[in-house]
Specification:
This protein is an all-alpha fold. The longest helix has 24 residues. The radius of gyration is 17 Å and the shape is globular.
């Protein structure tokens, strides 16, 4: 029994302009020169918070292709306690959580000042854009329960599992 309410492909066919807009918005961070590993860690954390299996799997796949350490992927949910993330990564993850948990509150000056110690104004614009975009994708993926794109693995015999 599938939990999927709407397949991603159906969403893309129904609302191609919305899909294109979100993809274009996300592409701005990719092309900004901002560290892609940091952006992917932020996207992973936001997708965890928002319970979006589809986006979580996509960004795990991307992170692995980028060579993000497996330990970081394993511990991103508990990044403040993990002790393996750089100060810059911690700042990005804290900012991602701040922008994701906005309901009923504003972004504090302390949170803004903390992230500004590690990112230039230009970098912060693109990091924030990436976080806003993944939050939008998460809301769609979670609402429709898009099926996660599970990568095929080779079995012991060398055939797809």
């Amino acid at each position: 029994m599938s939990n999927v309410r709407l397949a991603y492909d159906s969403f893309a066919r129904t609302a191609p302009a919305a899909q294109a807009a979100l993809l274009a918005m996300g592409k701005t961070a990719d092309e900004s020169g901002l560290d892609k590993e940091i952006v992917e860690l932020a996207k992973l954390r936001v997708s965890q918070i928002n319970n979006c299996a589809f986006c979580l799997q996509i960004h795990l796949n991307v992170s692995r292709r980028l060579g993000v350490a497996q330990e970081k992927l394993d511990l991103v949910a508990t990044w403040p306690e993990a002790g393996i993330f750089s100060e810059r990564e911690c700042a990005a993850l804290a900012w991602a959580e701040t922008l994701t948990h906005l309901a009923g509150r504003s972004v504090s000056d302390a949170a803004y000042d903390a992230v500004c110690r590690h990112f230039s104004e230009n970098e912060l614009v693109f990091l924030s854009t990436a976080i806003a975009t993944i939050n939008a994708w998460n809301r769609l993926g979670a609402a429709f329960r898009f099926a996660p794109p599970i990568p095929k693995r080779a079995s012991v015999e060398g055939k797809a599992a």
